[in-house]
Amino acid sequence: MGILVWLGGVFRLAEVKLQEGETLENALRRFKRKVQQEDIIKEVKRHSFYLKPGEKLRAKQALARKRNRKKNRREIE
Questions:
Q1: pLDDT (tens digit, 9 = 90+) per residue, 57-76?
Q2: Sequence-separated (6 or more) residues with CB below 8 Å from residue 38
Q3: pTM of whole model > 0.70?
Q4: Tens digits of per-residue pLDDT, 29-49?
């Protein structure tokens, strides 16, 4: 069981081999966890459409503002 995704000039492969005595459900659970840990879904979504440089910058700035607000809230408490 595996998924092959073309990202940034390389293929990223998440692969899980069915172990002896392991159910398909357990292998699927391990596969989903591995895909999530490797951020494959996030990368696919990020590369699925073009963002203008200005839009990228605005999104990056919005994330920075969100991070700073969260950091400030934690410092106040």
A1: 999 999 999 999 999 998 88
A2: 12, 14
A3: no
A4: 999 998 888 888 888 888 888
Report domain extents, the chain: 1-46, 50-77
Find how far residue 52's CA is from the centre of its chain: 21
How far out from the chain centre does Cα 34 lie?
A: 10
58 and 38 in contact (C-beta within 8 Å)?
Answer: no
Angstrom distances, CA of residue 1 to CA of 9, 25, 70, 73: 23, 12, 39, 44
Instruction: At 13, list the tokens.
Output: 């492969």
DSSP 34-66: HHHHTTHHHHHHHTSS---HHHHHHHHHHHHHH
